[in-house]
Amino acid sequence: MEESPAAAAATAPLPAAGGNLFGKYEVGKLLGCGSFGKVYHARNIGTGQSVALKSVSKQKVIKEGQTVQVKREISIMRRLRHPHIVRLSEVLATKTKIYFVMEFAKGGELFAKISKGRFSEDLTRRYFHQLISAVGYCHSRGVFHRDLKPENLLLDENWNLKVSDFGLSAVRDQVRQDGLLHTLCGTPAYVAPEILAKKGYDGAKVDIWSCGVILFVLHAGYLPFNDTNLMVMYRKIYKGEYRFPKWTSPELRRLLSRLLDTNPQTRITLDEILQDPWFRKDYEETKFHMEDFFSELKESGGGDMDRTGEEEDGEEKRLNAFDLISLSPGFDLSGLFNKSDVSEKFVSAETPEGIVDRVEEMARREGLGFTRRGNNCGAKLEGRNGNFALVVDVYRLTDDLVVVEVKEKEVNAGPGGGVWKNKLRPQFRSLVYQPGEGGLR
Length: 441
What we know:
The chain is built from 14 helices and 16 strands. By secondary structure, the chain is α+β, with helices and mostly antiparallel strands. It has three domains: 20-103, Phosphorylase Kinase, domain 1 (2-Layer Sandwich), CATH 3.30.200.20; 108-280, Transferase(Phosphotransferase), domain 1 (Orthogonal Bundle), CATH 1.10.510; 306-431, 2-Layer Sandwich (TATA-Binding Protein). α4 (121-140) packs antiparallel against α6. It holds the Pfam family Pkinase.
């Protein structure tokens, strides 16, 4: 099984309890050890708010070849803002360590609660409602968790569920041409049979299987598939061999049978779960309270951003509130590791089409290959000998301003010979919006 991105990463030596980190967080007691290293309770010195603090050794991450996965997890978590998903609020880094500032779930792990005994059917249903709400939200944004289990489900101070630990999560751009994921991952007792078959799998369907195992555990108080011999347990999973407890209602039996269907093609879908009679009882769709979120963002300096979350075909890409957060300094991933890609952002008053046209002129002037991307809101420049690649994306910020992101991509053929720094970067200066503070320096 594949380990979580930093499962083997050495944790950073934090100050003793009562010490502070970066003059911003007072570090408290050790909360536990997760797949991403040790987790500490900490307090924001300025606000007094409790947070969970994770730390990772950069050296270990690089040594284990997990740099891309760590960046991916941060990128995934910063785009997920849902009442039942642990929120990543900040990423801090030193030359040797990375610190993740997370929402603090005061109630601890759901696993600790279920280990004391099974839940009532009504309580089981309540937590399953919250789990499906979070998983459905992730899937709608192209994110597949791939390691759902009670240990990764936390509880807040109101005993509401919070999905955590996206260390093994995947996004749609990892899907191969066959439309499937191929990375072997997950926790043995919760892993779907198609992952064991090693023939590729649908990330959404394996998450649904894991949700079925979790539902069974909450209701029964024990695992549907379990054995001291790992291969025997895998055989049970592959064949779908399990027994319902005698107190399982007929309605719940039907739902569990569909969730734990060993054939991913006929396994129940999220839409079908939402219509299931057992699930529908006392179900209230999770409200996102987005008006409150945008008010909070505006008060914190986010501005009155466009609220559409998806791009429409034929339309320019607009930055929404989530994108603005991802562009904030606290989420700048460029300095976390030794740079292989160079990324710069600046604000411009030019139109997206005008910027792409200017980039095309630059490419022609420098003898570079040019390709338009994303409905004329981006471009890719490439060296004729394959030793240079530059990606330019333009996002609408306001009616008058755009954000331009320029990435110099690492290529196998070697360095680009200073094409960006010495030839193209100076030409981009003319696109920078001068009255603002942003820009190329």
